[in-house]
Amino acid sequence: MVELSTDDAFALLVNNQYRWHKMGGNESTRRSILTRIGNGKEISMDTKFKYLKMAGFRLKSYPRWVTPKFK
Fold this sequence. Notes:
Layout: E1 3-5, H1 6-14, H2 17-22, H3 27-38, H4 45-54, E2 58-61, E3 64-66
Antiparallel strand pairs: 1-3, 2-3
Helix pairs in contact: 1-4
């Protein structure tokens, strides 16, 4: 398990199609987020927290996240 900042953990999640699919995320939503980031638009912290929690990331100490273990 690795400790990451919120931005780094979110980038890891949206840039990894396997992790996104494993959490049950919609591929069109992932592509939409990647496009928004690519166009320089900010993703809200609430949105980042929501998806990180859905993917199994744990908040260790604000704002540090621990990656989930996949079986």
